[in-house]
Amino acid sequence: MCGIIGYVGKERAVPIILNGLEKLEYRGYDSCGILIISDKKSFIFKKVGKVKELAEEIKDKKIDGNLGVGHTRWATHGGVDEKNTHPHFDCENKIFVVHNGIIENFFELKKDLENKNHKFNSDTDTEVLAHLIEEYLKEMQFKEAVLKALKQIKGTYAFLIGSLEKPNFLIGARKSSPLILGLGENEIFLASDPTPLLKYTNKFIFLDDYDVVFIEDGEFEIYSLLLNKTKEPKIEEINWNVTEVSTSDYEHYMLKEIKEEPRAILQTVAPRVNFLKKEIEFEELEKSKDKLKKIEKVVFVGCGTAYYAGLYGKYLFEDILNLQVDAEISSELRYRNYPFNSKTLLIVISQSGETIDTIEALKKAKEKKVFSLGIINVPGSSLTRLVDVNLLTFAGPELAVASTKALLAQMTVIVLLALYLAKNKKTALPIEKIIYEFKDLPLKIEEILRRENEIEKIAEKIKKFNNFYFLGRKFEYVTALEGALKLKEIAYLHAEAYPAGEMKHGPIALVDENFATIFINPYNSLFEKTKSNLEEIKARKGNVILISDKEENDVFAFFKIPTTIEIFYPFLTIPVLHLLAYFTAKKLGREIDRPRNLAKSVTVE
Ligand code: M6R
Question: Tens digits of per-residue pLDDT, 410-453?
Fold first, then answer.
């Protein structure tokens, strides 16, 4: 949601800002704006629509400024139109602001400022900050006015703030919405995440909540509104490859990222498995061994696909460890009176590390002294700094709105963690066999991905249906949830997932010859049970699409997966459903990487 990019340096700011906005598109947006300041002049362009349309408008103009800010807006307050597109200004059109987040007390602030004769040009919450600074400027200097204004703001924010009269001066501020500083050679960047900056630097400072950074004449200083003093910056390196943030030869990020699923697993496994000793080694957990021994209950928490990874974790931990395990949706958990205690282990799952509901659920659990682990993909993101220990996924940047390879990497960490915690414990599962199977898993997924044309043919057959059930049991119920979400998200087709056994308790009422049901039924201990449900659908003329390693001809469509051990089947069935959603969406002409109404990183509640 909303993307922010800022630049102060020696280069022309225009291409840097436009390129940055393009790289931030994946976050989801409906309009965009850019501001460039030079010694003599400033330029502002706004567009309801795509960054490329904005770039087209600017391309023949001679704009030379070395300071720029850009913003992609995902509307919250005020309609999707040019007047609400950022940047926003004060009455004099001198102080500018771009913003990601929500100013919760904007209504009162605006009323108060209007009483003081401030004239507003937009319906946004953002604009109040520019006027508030203008108001305080009557009695103090710019920096002080900004700090005082920020102290009045309730809600969440990542702001870039500046003045058209100060071509070497830019301010960034963060509370709950992401903002990072990128350090180049004689140039400083600000952005919502590292993606648009990888081309220029691998050195980043991840701002903390209440940090305000002042950039002036090539230098910067970080002031904490929480500590009321300046802070020592902590510079961190991210060594993501620049090619990872381009589509390479693929038509869409989503397809590229599905194809990267085997690599995401390999990269996540490699530092943690000693295949010779047949042991799991989590260096990250060395200092927490005693804490982990005392754990009596595990809670997984996440949203959307990350929640499904948690559900997979619940079923797996129950099988491998003799513990009580829950999987919870962040946006629910945060408002519940969940019985956390010091013997609860909270496992927070998130690709972006910026999902606000997950951040808030974690904060609430921390109040009860819960020990927390993070399974997070973006290094340095907000969640990585809030959990006690990070077990990062190494899936690389994921830019399509639909999460794919990150899920496989999250499930990989969950399996590794279960095996690690099972050490010296009695368990019915063949631990050594599981470790060994990790070697073959990426190869088996690659085999599935090579057979994409078979999945494309199934997509051609199913694209005519408007309604889908996805059914599976236990681990494959997780696959079902993921398959249904992906089809909804990118193909805009109505899809619901149920545990296969639940189908008879209501959902089956909808089944007829116009209805499609996707069964995920590997040849495992639950095969026969799910097969009975499949027959029940067929008996009602429902169209069955089956994914299994046991051949079946008498169905509407069939895809054969390789065989593996029970806990690993979702690693094979999920890529099939990812490709199925992808091809169906493509055949229906959908906008795959940036589906309507959705954002990659959900930073508003
Ligand atoms: O960045 P996160 O993993 O915390 O995001 C959680 C969900 O918003 C995300 O998985 C969402 O459901 C995806 N669009 C699913 O494809």
Answer: 999 999 999 999 987 777 778 888 888 988 999 999 999 999 99
Q: Where are the alpha helices (DSSP H) in 105-235?
A: 106-115, 127-137, 142-152
- Ligand 1 centre from 25 Cα, in Å? 16
Ligand 1 atom nearest residue 401's Cα: 14
Q: Which of 122-126, 241-245, 293-297 has the lowest mean pLDDT?
A: 241-245
Is the CB of residue 331 below 6 angstroms from any atom belonging to ligand 1? no
Nearest to 123 by CA among 63, 159, 75: 75
pLDDT tens digits, one per residue of 568-588: 999 999 999 999 999 999 999
Contact (Cβ atoms closer than 8 angstroms) between residue 568 and residue 433: no
Q: 205 alpha carbon to ligand 1 midpoint, in Å?
A: 24
The values of phi and psi at residue 557, to 5°, are: -155, 150
- Residue 223 corresponds to which tokens in the numbers above? 């002031």
Average pLDDT of 325-340? 95
Domains recognised in the chain with CATH numbers: 3-245 (3.60.20.10), 254-449 (3.40.50.10490), 451-593 (3.40.50.10490)
- 347 neighbors 388 (Cβ within 8 angstroms): no
Reported confidence tier of residue 77, pLDDT bands at 50, 70, 90: confident
For every residue of 368-428, DSSP letters joined together read TT-EEEEEESSTT-HHHHHSSEE---------SSS--HHHHHHHHHHHHHHHHHHTTS--S
* Strand residues in 3-66 grouped as ranges (E): 3-8, 31-37, 42-48
Q: Assess contact for 74 and 2: CB atoms under 8 A.
A: yes
Task: Tell me how far CA of residue 501 lies from CA of 325, 518, 559, in angstroms.
Answer: 22, 14, 22
CA distance 90 to 142: 13
Q: What percent of the chain has pLDDT over 70?
A: 99
C-beta of 408 in contact with ligand 1 (< 6 A):
no
The predicted pLDDT at position 244 comes to 66
Let me know if 91 is a catalytic residue: no
Q: How far apart are CA 150 and CA 480, in angstroms?
A: 45
32 is catalytic: no
Contact 151, 105 (CB under 8 A): no
Confidence tier at 404 by pLDDT (50, 70, 90): very high
Which amino acid is residue 24, in one-letter code?
Answer: L
Nearest residue (by CA) to ligand 1, atom 7, is 304
Residue closest via CA to ligand 1's atom 16 equals 402
Residue 213 CA to its chain's centroid (Å): 25
- Give per-residue pLDDT as tens, 170-188: 999 999 888 999 999 999 9
Regarding the beta carbon of 573 and ligand 1, being less than 6 Å apart is answered no
Question: What per-residue confidence (pLDDT) applies to 245?
Answer: 67
pLDDT tens profile 502-542: 999 999 999 999 999 999 999 999 999 999 999 999 999 99
Ligand 1 within 6 A of 304 CB?
Answer: yes
| Angle, helix 304-320 to helix 475-491, in steps of 10 degrees | 170
Please name the residue ranges forming H helices in 244-345. 253-259, 261-269, 289-293, 304-320, 330-333
Q: How many C-beta atoms surround the C-beta of residue 207 within 10 A?
A: 24
Helices 261-269 & 569-587 angle (0-180, nearest 10) = 150
